[in-house]
Write a structure and sequence with these properties.
mainly alpha
Length: 314
């Protein structure tokens, strides 16, 4: 912590909570250990709500609870370490998942499992094509490639394969385990994970095909060009006699005066999409089936509006 600066909010909460924990433990005749952390049993089912007991089975009764309530432990209000005076206050907030489970439910492995599962639908793109689109997305930005190189993605999958069939894997989110099993199909889950990891790690996998060879899919278009579609889809198409140029200027001005964030990002992405294609026709064709609102004419209207706005107001 840097001296002279206020501690972050979570640190202030911890500092406020520490005296209460120590006080309740002294009153209960228990010596508080510095930095003591509540643990939960490996493999226990996730708790259903705040304050619920973590793990299967009833909450173990304490002698002082039963003594105070005539043998009925359920009737005793329980707070910090069972101190009735702290009823309603619980520092043992149950974890729905392990901290590392976020990477499985909302990280790269989750995205790959979703793609693998979707590829099993009738008429869906083959998994190899979807993984190539994934590679194209991951290398779309230097920032993404720096933060999560493909080798790191492969290592995550190998680590998950090593964990498969262990008690720790059994404690992972059930929804993720179910989706992964269905994505693997008849293949053993660990073998499936290693096969995908090997493919992602292959140097040739990083050589992404162009849009002419492997067209955009809807999920890839939304992930890469979502902000372009957001603005392009709001432009009029000539109905009701509205002026497209005026509408584009008004649309861009809606973010004023905070234009140096989202609108600056929009400007860069508009130029990039326009320069990705040799002709307006190629651009329109590439987006026709996935983002019909994204056309060369609309993007140029928006880009002109951005330039005009910054020239006039900034």
């Amino acid at each position: 912590m840097v001296l002279g600066r206020k501690p972050p909010p979570f640190m202030r909460i911890r500092q406020l909570a520490t005296p209460l924990v120590a006080s309740s433990r002294r009153d209960a005749g228990v010596r508080a250990r510095p930095g003591a952390r509540l643990s939960r049993r490996v493999g226990a089912e996730p708790a259903q709500g705040l304050g619920d007991h973590v793990g299967p089975g009833p909450v173990p009764a304490r002698e002082k609870d039963t003594a105070a309530t005539g043998g009925d432990a359920r009737a005793a209000p329980r707070g910090v370490d069972g101190d009735p005076r702290c009823a309603g206050l619980s520092l043992s907030l149950p974890r729905v998942t392990e901290p590392t489970d976020a990477v499985l439910t909302d990280g790269v492995p989750a995205r790959l499992v979703d793609l693998a599962l979707a590829s099993r639908n009738p008429g869906a793109a083959p998994l190899e094509d979807e993984l190539q689109r994934f590679s194209r997305l991951m290398q779309d930005s230097h920032t993404i490639a720096w933060a999560m190189p493909l080798g790191a993605v492969a290592s995550l999958l190998d680590g998950l394969a090593d964990e498969y069939a262990t008690e720790r894997y059994g404690a992972r989110p059930a929804a993720f385990r179910d989706r992964l099993a269905r994505a693997a199909g008849d293949e053993p889950v660990d073998a499936f994970l290693r096969a995908v990891a090997e493919l992602v790690r292959d140097p040739s996998f990083g050589v992404c095909p162009g849009l002419g060879e492997l067209p955009l899919s809807q999920w890839e278009a939304l992930a890469r060009f979502g902000i372009v579609n957001e603005f392009a889809s709001q432009l009029p198409t000539g109905e009701y006699g509205r002026d497209p140029v005026a509408e584009a200027h008004e649309l861009v001005a809606m973010d004023h005066p905070d234009c140096h964030g989202r609108i600056a990002d929009l400007a860069g992405m508009l130029q990039r999409v326009l320069y990705m294609f040799r002709t307006p026709g190629e651009l329109d064709e590439a987006f026709a089936s996935v983002m019909p609102s994204v056309t060369s004419a609309r993007l140029r209207l928006l880009l002109d509006a951005v330039h005009a706005h910054f020239a006039e107001h900034h």
